[in-house]
Write a structure and sequence with these properties.
By secondary structure, this protein is α/β, with parallel strands linked by helices. It has two domains: about 1-150, Alpha/beta knot, CATH 3.40.1280; about 165-224, tRNA(m1g37)methyltransferase, domain 2 (Trp Operon Repressor, Chain A, Orthogonal Bundle). Helix content is about 30%, strand content about 20%. It has helices at about 20-25, 65-75, 95-100, 120-125, 140-150, 165, 200-220; strands at about 1-5, 30-35, 50, 60, 80-90, 105-110, 130, 185, 190. Strands 2-1-6-5-7 form a five-stranded parallel β-sheet. A two-stranded antiparallel sheet has the order 3-4. β5, α3 and β6 form a beta-alpha-beta unit. About 25% of the residues are buried. Bound molecules: adenine. Adenine (ADE) binds near residues 87 and 135. Adenine (ADE) binds next to β5.
Protein backbone atom coordinates (compact mmCIF):
# COMPACT_ATOMS: atom_id res chain seq x y z
CA UNK A 1 0.00 0.00 0.00
CA UNK A 2 1.18 3.50 -0.82
CA UNK A 3 -0.06 6.51 1.17
CA UNK A 4 0.64 10.06 -0.09
CA UNK A 5 -0.01 12.74 2.51
CA UNK A 6 -0.42 16.38 1.46
CA UNK A 7 0.15 18.88 4.26
CA UNK A 8 1.51 22.33 5.00
CA UNK A 9 3.13 20.96 8.19
CA UNK A 10 5.27 18.03 7.00
CA UNK A 11 7.48 18.13 10.14
CA UNK A 12 4.55 16.90 12.24
CA UNK A 13 4.76 13.48 10.61
CA UNK A 14 8.42 12.83 11.37
CA UNK A 15 7.94 11.22 14.78
CA UNK A 16 4.70 9.23 14.61
CA UNK A 17 5.30 7.78 11.14
CA UNK A 18 8.82 6.59 12.05
CA UNK A 19 8.19 4.51 15.14
CA UNK A 20 6.99 1.06 16.10
CA UNK A 21 4.61 -0.87 13.80
CA UNK A 22 4.35 1.91 11.18
CA UNK A 23 8.14 2.13 10.91
CA UNK A 24 8.48 -1.66 10.63
CA UNK A 25 5.73 -1.81 7.99
CA UNK A 26 7.75 0.60 5.84
CA UNK A 27 11.05 -1.19 6.45
CA UNK A 28 9.47 -4.53 5.48
CA UNK A 29 8.13 -2.94 2.29
CA UNK A 30 4.44 -3.46 3.09
CA UNK A 31 3.71 0.26 3.13
CA UNK A 32 5.28 3.35 1.55
CA UNK A 33 4.42 6.73 3.07
CA UNK A 34 5.25 9.88 1.09
CA UNK A 35 4.79 13.31 2.67
CA UNK A 36 4.30 16.28 0.32
CA UNK A 37 4.73 19.86 1.48
CA UNK A 38 1.87 21.87 -0.01
CA UNK A 39 4.10 24.96 -0.06
CA UNK A 40 6.29 23.28 -2.70
CA UNK A 41 3.30 23.52 -5.06
CA UNK A 42 2.65 27.21 -4.49
CA UNK A 43 3.48 29.53 -7.40
CA UNK A 44 3.42 32.51 -5.04
CA UNK A 45 6.87 33.98 -4.30
CA UNK A 46 6.15 33.80 -0.54
CA UNK A 47 4.94 30.20 -0.91
CA UNK A 48 1.48 31.06 0.38
CA UNK A 49 -1.08 28.27 0.28
CA UNK A 50 -3.98 30.14 1.90
CA UNK A 51 -6.05 33.26 1.32
CA UNK A 52 -9.05 35.19 2.68
CA UNK A 53 -12.51 33.72 2.25
CA UNK A 54 -14.71 35.32 -0.42
CA UNK A 55 -17.65 37.00 1.23
CA UNK A 56 -15.69 37.73 4.40
CA UNK A 57 -15.64 35.93 7.73
CA UNK A 58 -12.82 35.01 10.08
CA UNK A 59 -10.13 32.56 9.09
CA UNK A 60 -8.02 31.69 6.11
CA UNK A 61 -8.85 29.09 3.48
CA UNK A 62 -6.43 26.71 1.74
CA UNK A 63 -6.57 27.70 -1.92
CA UNK A 64 -7.31 25.28 -4.75
CA UNK A 65 -4.29 25.89 -6.97
CA UNK A 66 -1.41 24.31 -4.98
CA UNK A 67 -3.66 21.42 -3.95
CA UNK A 68 -4.69 20.75 -7.56
CA UNK A 69 -1.09 20.97 -8.74
CA UNK A 70 0.06 18.45 -6.12
CA UNK A 71 -2.82 15.99 -6.69
CA UNK A 72 -2.47 16.26 -10.48
CA UNK A 73 1.24 15.50 -10.29
CA UNK A 74 0.61 12.42 -8.15
CA UNK A 75 -2.23 11.25 -10.40
CA UNK A 76 0.03 11.59 -13.46
CA UNK A 77 2.36 9.00 -11.87
CA UNK A 78 -0.14 6.31 -10.76
CA UNK A 79 -3.81 5.58 -10.28
CA UNK A 80 -5.32 6.37 -6.87
CA UNK A 81 -8.16 4.39 -5.30
CA UNK A 82 -9.21 7.29 -3.06
CA UNK A 83 -8.35 10.94 -2.51
CA UNK A 84 -9.36 11.51 1.11
CA UNK A 85 -9.88 14.84 2.85
CA UNK A 86 -9.67 14.81 6.66
CA UNK A 87 -12.40 17.05 8.04
CA UNK A 88 -14.65 17.14 11.13
CA UNK A 89 -17.75 17.09 8.87
CA UNK A 90 -16.69 13.89 7.07
CA UNK A 91 -17.91 10.33 7.67
CA UNK A 92 -16.76 9.14 11.10
CA UNK A 93 -13.88 6.65 10.98
CA UNK A 94 -14.89 3.21 12.24
CA UNK A 95 -13.03 -0.11 12.24
CA UNK A 96 -15.08 -1.36 9.27
CA UNK A 97 -13.93 1.61 7.17
CA UNK A 98 -10.32 0.99 8.23
CA UNK A 99 -10.62 -2.69 7.20
CA UNK A 100 -12.01 -1.65 3.81
CA UNK A 101 -9.39 1.05 3.13
CA UNK A 102 -6.48 -1.17 4.23
CA UNK A 103 -7.06 -3.26 1.07
CA UNK A 104 -6.47 -0.29 -1.27
CA UNK A 105 -3.33 0.05 -3.33
CA UNK A 106 -2.77 3.84 -3.46
CA UNK A 107 -4.47 6.56 -1.45
CA UNK A 108 -3.95 10.30 -1.00
CA UNK A 109 -4.68 12.01 2.33
CA UNK A 110 -5.21 15.77 2.22
CA UNK A 111 -4.84 17.63 5.51
CA UNK A 112 -6.88 20.79 5.92
CA UNK A 113 -5.90 23.79 8.01
CA UNK A 114 -7.32 27.11 9.17
CA UNK A 115 -10.98 27.30 8.09
CA UNK A 116 -10.59 24.41 5.68
CA UNK A 117 -10.11 24.12 1.93
CA UNK A 118 -11.82 25.86 -0.98
CA UNK A 119 -15.08 23.96 -1.52
CA UNK A 120 -14.13 23.31 -5.17
CA UNK A 121 -11.34 21.01 -3.94
CA UNK A 122 -13.98 18.95 -2.13
CA UNK A 123 -16.39 19.04 -5.05
CA UNK A 124 -13.94 18.10 -7.80
CA UNK A 125 -10.77 16.51 -6.42
CA UNK A 126 -11.80 14.57 -3.31
CA UNK A 127 -13.45 11.13 -3.42
CA UNK A 128 -14.03 10.60 0.31
CA UNK A 129 -14.21 12.80 3.43
CA UNK A 130 -13.32 11.32 6.81
CA UNK A 131 -13.61 12.63 10.39
CA UNK A 132 -11.88 10.91 13.31
CA UNK A 133 -14.52 12.08 15.80
CA UNK A 134 -16.87 14.82 16.87
CA UNK A 135 -14.31 17.40 17.96
CA UNK A 136 -12.27 19.97 16.08
CA UNK A 137 -8.49 19.66 15.76
CA UNK A 138 -6.17 22.48 14.69
CA UNK A 139 -5.60 20.73 11.39
CA UNK A 140 -6.05 17.47 9.56
CA UNK A 141 -2.51 16.20 10.29
CA UNK A 142 -3.27 14.35 13.53
CA UNK A 143 -6.39 12.91 11.91
CA UNK A 144 -4.35 11.73 8.89
CA UNK A 145 -1.88 10.03 11.24
CA UNK A 146 -4.71 8.32 13.14
CA UNK A 147 -6.25 7.12 9.87
CA UNK A 148 -2.89 5.99 8.43
CA UNK A 149 -1.99 4.10 11.62
CA UNK A 150 -5.37 2.35 11.73
CA UNK A 151 -4.94 1.18 8.11
CA UNK A 152 -1.27 0.23 8.20
CA UNK A 153 -1.62 -2.26 11.05
CA UNK A 154 -4.28 -4.07 9.02
CA UNK A 155 -2.20 -4.44 5.85
CA UNK A 156 -1.47 -8.18 5.46
CA UNK A 157 1.98 -9.07 6.78
CA UNK A 158 2.41 -5.96 8.94
CA UNK A 159 1.58 -7.53 12.32
CA UNK A 160 3.79 -10.45 13.28
CA UNK A 161 0.88 -12.34 14.81
CA UNK A 162 -1.71 -12.10 12.03
CA UNK A 163 -4.51 -13.06 14.39
CA UNK A 164 -3.86 -10.16 16.72
CA UNK A 165 -5.68 -7.59 14.55
CA UNK A 166 -8.67 -9.95 14.40
CA UNK A 167 -9.02 -9.92 18.19
CA UNK A 168 -8.86 -6.12 18.46
CA UNK A 169 -11.73 -4.16 19.93
CA UNK A 170 -14.45 -3.33 17.35
CA UNK A 171 -13.76 -6.33 15.11
CA UNK A 172 -17.11 -8.24 15.40
CA UNK A 173 -18.63 -5.12 17.00
CA UNK A 174 -17.31 -6.25 20.39
CA UNK A 175 -14.79 -4.60 22.69
CA UNK A 176 -11.74 -6.75 23.42
CA UNK A 177 -11.79 -8.85 26.64
CA UNK A 178 -9.36 -8.07 29.51
CA UNK A 179 -5.81 -9.45 29.26
CA UNK A 180 -3.37 -10.45 32.02
CA UNK A 181 0.32 -11.36 32.23
CA UNK A 182 2.80 -12.57 34.84
CA UNK A 183 2.92 -12.68 37.81
CA UNK A 184 -0.29 -14.69 38.38
CA UNK A 185 -0.64 -12.94 41.73
CA UNK A 186 0.58 -9.44 42.58
CA UNK A 187 -0.06 -7.76 45.96
CA UNK A 188 -2.84 -10.33 46.42
CA UNK A 189 -4.51 -9.32 43.11
CA UNK A 190 -5.10 -12.55 41.22
CA UNK A 191 -5.41 -13.40 37.55
CA UNK A 192 -8.76 -15.17 36.85
CA UNK A 193 -8.09 -18.89 37.44
CA UNK A 194 -9.56 -19.98 34.12
CA UNK A 195 -6.69 -18.28 32.25
CA UNK A 196 -4.05 -20.44 33.96
CA UNK A 197 -6.14 -23.65 33.74
CA UNK A 198 -4.89 -24.70 30.30
CA UNK A 199 -8.49 -25.42 29.08
CA UNK A 200 -8.32 -23.73 25.65
CA UNK A 201 -12.02 -24.10 24.83
CA UNK A 202 -13.14 -22.83 28.23
CA UNK A 203 -10.74 -19.89 27.94
CA UNK A 204 -12.24 -18.97 24.55
CA UNK A 205 -15.76 -19.11 26.01
CA UNK A 206 -14.66 -16.96 28.98
CA UNK A 207 -13.03 -14.40 26.67
CA UNK A 208 -16.17 -14.15 24.56
CA UNK A 209 -18.38 -13.72 27.65
CA UNK A 210 -16.04 -11.00 28.96
CA UNK A 211 -16.08 -9.22 25.60
CA UNK A 212 -19.91 -9.23 25.57
CA UNK A 213 -20.08 -8.08 29.22
CA UNK A 214 -17.61 -5.25 28.60
CA UNK A 215 -19.47 -4.15 25.48
CA UNK A 216 -22.84 -4.22 27.31
CA UNK A 217 -21.41 -2.10 30.13
CA UNK A 218 -19.36 0.39 28.11
CA UNK A 219 -20.72 0.51 24.57
CA UNK A 220 -24.23 -0.97 24.43
CA UNK A 221 -24.73 0.91 21.13
CA UNK A 222 -22.34 -1.55 19.45
CA UNK A 223 -24.68 -4.47 20.21
CA UNK A 224 -27.78 -2.86 18.67
N1 LIG B 1 -9.62 18.28 11.09
C1 LIG B 1 -9.96 18.97 12.20
N2 LIG B 1 -10.68 18.23 13.04
C2 LIG B 1 -10.81 17.01 12.46
C3 LIG B 1 -11.45 15.80 12.83
N3 LIG B 1 -12.14 15.67 13.98
N4 LIG B 1 -11.37 14.75 11.99
C4 LIG B 1 -10.70 14.87 10.82
N5 LIG B 1 -10.08 15.97 10.42
C5 LIG B 1 -10.13 17.04 11.23
Amino acid sequence: MRIDIITCLPELFEGPMNQSIVKRAQQKGHVAIHIHNLRDYSTDKHKHVDDYAFGGGAGMVLTIEPIDRCISELKSQRTYDEVIYLTPDGETLKQGMANHLSLKENIILLCGHYKGVDQRVRDHLITKEISIGDYVLSGGELAAMVLADSLIRLVPGVLNDESSALTDSFQDNLLAPPVYSRPAEYKGWKVPEILTSGHEAKIETWRHEQAVKRTQERRPDLLE
